[in-house]
Amino acid sequence: MGLLTMNTSRRITFLFGFVMFLMLTIPDRAVSAEGAVNKPPMLHAQQWYWALDPSPETLEPQKNLEAVKNLSFTTIDEKALANLEYLLPGKRGYIWIRGEFPSLEVFSPKPLGLFLGRVTMTDQTWVNGIFVGSTGRNPPNYFSYWNTSREYAIPPEAIELHKPITVTMRIWVDGEGSLASRPFIGFREDTAHANRWENFWNSTVNLMFAAIMLIISLYHFILYYRRKKDKENFSFALLNLLSVFYLSNFFITELPGMPPAWLSYLSFQKFINLVLFFMLFKLSGFVRDYLRKTDPSWIFWVRVVLFAIPVGIILLSPSYASLRELRLVTQLFLLPPLAYVLYIPVSSFLKKDPDALPLLLGFSPLVLTALLDIFLHEVLKLYNFPYITGFGWQIVLISFLFLLAGRFARARNEAEDLNLHLEQKVKERTEELFQANQQLQQVNSALEEANYRAQRDLKMAEFVQKSFYPAFLPPLEGWDVAYAFEPMAGVSGDLYDFYIDENRLLGAGLFDVSGHGIASGLVAMLAKSVVYRQFKDGKDIPLGEVMKRIDEKLISEKGNIENYLTGILLRFTDDRVEYVNAGHPDLLYRSGRTGAVKAVESRQGESRGRFIGLEGLSEGYRSLRFPIHSGDTLLVYSDCLVEAKNAEGVEFGNERLKETLSRAPAKDGAAAVRDYILGQFKTFLAGEEPKDDLTILVMIKG
After folding, report:
1. Domain count across the chain
2. Same domain, 439 and 570
3. Which letter, b or e, does each residue of 322-339 get, where b requires 16 or more Cβ atoms within 10 Å of its Cβ?
4. pLDDT digit string, tens, across residues 119-155
5. Residue in 439, 483, 430 with CA at minimum distance from that of residue 464
């Protein structure tokens, strides 16, 4: 695991370093004109002006700028172009921006172009009164092309030698408006190159990452479909799909036919904001699934409330401006889920979970790029520098991909190693069993004899199995116990045991091996020894942990035998019962005072854990504790009791068993209860033979 952590750390560091190298070493003509174009012309605005547009109507591009001559333009600092919304009442409406560029003193040998960079939200642009282009969909159903770089060709008739060049723009503003880049006039080949480069980093890179994420999402959906127990594959697939939707905010205007005419910018931004909260909600689910954690119900409902409140605010926002104004409020609801996402791996790391540290390292690129964005855009005010937090998130997803791939490879290696050394391990375990358990030696001797005398194998196995179980129970202090053990065909796949210290009943267990015949019977005998040792050795630990150790020991000792077990384990301490269920029919409890019968279940829902003896199932087992009073009855039984069918194909069933137990003469003792249940059971079958082994344990508290 240490090697895995080291490799994961190196991969994450390499990815982050590679992206930063590309962004910082490749020249960007839109950022630094002097470094990008080393020959004239390269003209930047000498002064900027602005004026309010009194008309809400869209100005037709064919019209001249007569209306602009009547407007009162005011100088504006170039830095203020990044926040045009503060110049408009209500932060909404059209605004005119005019830039005065130096004149050309010599005739240009090449076509000229105007590079504006990213403009928020829409623009219509003229050069010396000649319309050169527009980008974005204007009101009423406007759509902002905020992440699309603008570059327009300047017709030759728009330029006069020795006269300043005036660039006029009509920009629609709603809650935000800006000229994020530094405009310049230059050779068309240079302005086009700067435009392509800015669009590449702001749109194309995100589109490429989205395509990769979509493929990763489909791949992990397929993995989950093939193996639904690995829930982290589903969470990761959904996380990638949501990321694709979120990244569409950066490239939707670059897609053919997008955005559709019916889609408003407000509706689209609501969708993007909702996706962000869905992503965070699902991110905590992925972290939880990857670390095999479960949420208490109250945490789940707190998460739902913290999700529902900002979702409601977003959906009810009447305009994009109000949506932006409420952004700080809604984003505050991101903090508790983010804290919870980090809490899960940190708490697991403190508990020595080896999977926690690589997961924490996987989040590091997101943290670093977010801090770098804050430094570049808020401290250094480099608004034309692309936001890189999105790249950090994409690196995080790739690091998660490495983690899942590493887990899959590790599982395959372990399986191959187990198969490679299986024969040697079987020999070692067999030798340990010979030395540790005299009864198991007798079973092995009986099996050796059965190999030579095939005609006696079933009877010999039956004889050996019966020798494992006591012929009778001694009187027990505080308990009246009776049992029934009826194999279907000589050798039973059921096993039961009572754990007694002198005359004190410490506990009891009933387990059912899958399948029938000699193989199931042999596994039952092996399991009986394992359960007995683990129960005795685990007297000071929770019973759920005892069941987990039984599971691990059986997986180790039974080798490649495919049988698995269900079972119930009980431990008695004074007037309390500790109970663990591993995929077995429910323990039934009958009140001595009222006679009411009910299944013992957890208040949190399902109390039955997973099967025993199957590799790859990492969930633990839950211990339940409850009080027991004098006269109360406990009934433990194999599934044959409820699944056996009569001639009409009707099962005896759980409800019929509860009714039978409620009517049983508990005052006459455990044996009378057992006999009554068996009598009702056989009467119901009306001569039909059960198709499975039948075992019943009846325990009445004295």
Report:
1. 4
2. no
3. ebbebbeebeebeeebee
4. 999 999 999 989 999 999 998 899 999 999 999 999 9
5. 439
